[in-house]
Amino acid sequence: MALFTSYRCRLKHLNILLFTDGDATELQFGRDVLLPVAEEYLLEHSYQGGLTLHFFVAGEDEVADSVRDYACLEDVVPLVAILDLAEGSKFLLEDGVEVSTATVHNFVTRYTHDKLKPLPIRPGAAEATGAS
User: Fold this and answer.
1) What is the CATH number for 47?
2) Which molecular function GO terms apply here (predicted)?
3) Which of 4-18, 29-43, 68-82, 111-125 has the weakest average pLDDT?
């Protein structure tokens, strides 16, 4: 958790993460999937004052493990998640959906059109604070 805290300032914006097993082939796969989506997102949203969604490919390392632990994400790969630390919410690509440029593009589009249901980053946190 301490390692995540040290990287939290870098993750303060909206982030989409594609978690992989960390080998070179999987990291390249993640890059190949996310790059076209990121480029299109940047073109479509640059008029709004710049990029608000940051795209990351994560491998098996301490930072990725800390993010997974903090956001209560399953240790499965590949896993695609949008994290909104400011709002304390996360959005997950549905189980069983093949990770591809098309499915990630659709996921981001549904997110930008408010078609995804947010989940709390830390389940139980809303109940503990009395928030609804």
Assistant:
1) 3.40.30.10
2) thioredoxin-disulfide reductase (NADPH) activity
3) 4-18
